[in-house]
Amino acid sequence: MKKVLVAEDEESIRSFIVINLTRSGYDVKQASNGAEALKLFDASNGDFDVAVLDIMMPEMDGFTLCKELRERSNDLGIIMLSAKTQEMDKVNGLFNGADDYVTKPFSPSELMARVDAIYRRVEMTRGVKKNDVTGDSVTLDNFELNLRNRTLSKNGKNIDLTQVEFQIIEYFFKNPNAALSRSDILKQVWGANYYGDEKIVDVNIRRLRMKIEDNPSSPTRLATVWGHGYKWTTDD
Predict the structure, then answer these.
(1) Which of 10, 33, 38, 71 has CB 3.0 to 4.6 Å from 59, enough for a Cys bridge?
(2) Does one domain contain both 80 and 182?
């Protein structure tokens, strides 16, 4: 069963989300605040595929909850709910480990498209890890990307990546030194029918730089191609 955790303090919105997820075949557990949601997650031993989290909640806000969930699982798909005017909240949510965000108000079709896309990505990641933990890898200088167990290492040391971050890195490793536009990355990772804007690419690149670069403020690997996008730079 496809399992989703919904954390939203406004009962009308929470009910709206739960009803639409249930109609689409998801097994939904709901919480009215972040602390309650974290207890549900821990009680189930993390047996969830996707979490839909509101930002402004009592007891524990969505940012803190997102960070706690991400520390417990790199595979869990996390979608943040933000108000239209909360632009920085979207960025903060992504930096805390979210994979995507949905802006309120949203339609049932938009929400389901986002959840379905995240769920498919999570299932693909878990399926690969479960069925084959050895095999093909791509090595670029001191980095090795294992395409089977979906891990990245630097100088032999593993770097924790979310499933979205892995897909971004995989795209770069398959196109080293090639300038990839933001729209190319968006379509490759989030899909051609993605509802959001390209800013989600920039935030994820910044988050990746913090994990892989010796000096994230002066990146040598994930370089910016001004007015276009980004590229992975090799030593050659």
Answers:
(1) 33
(2) no
How many structural domains compose the chain?
A: 2
Q: At what angle do helices 87-95 and 199-212 cross, to 10 degrees?
A: 30
**For 131, how many CA atoms within 13 A lie in the half-sphere containing its CB?**
7
Q: Alpha-carbon distance 204 to 210, whole Å?
A: 10
In whole angstroms, give the CA distance from residue 175 to residue 28.
Answer: 39
**For position 98, which CATH number holds?**
3.40.50.2300
Q: Residue 17's domain spans which residues?
A: 2-127
What counts of helices (H) and strands (E) characterise the chain?
8, 12
Q: How far apart are CA 57 and CA 64, in angstroms?
A: 10
Cis omega (within 30 of 0) on the bond before 58?
Answer: no
Q: Output the pTM of the full model.
A: 0.78
SS3 112: helix
- Listed as own residue / partner, the contacts of 88-94 with beta carbons closer than 8 Å and 24 or more positions apart are 89/55, 89/63, 90/199, 90/200, 90/203, 91/199, 91/203, 92/63, 93/55, 93/62, 93/63, 93/66, 94/200, 94/203, 94/204, 94/207
**Percentage helix, strand, coil for the chain under 3-state DSSP, each rounded to 5:** 45, 25, 35
Collapsing DSSP states into helix, strand and coil, what is residue 36?
A: helix
Cβ atoms of residues 129 and 149 within 8 Å? yes
pLDDT tens digits, 173-232: 999 999 999 999 998 888 877 767 788 899 899 999 999 999 999 999 999 999 899 999
- Any bridge partners for residue 122, and if so which? none
CA distances from 96 to 24, 93, 129 (A): 28, 5, 24
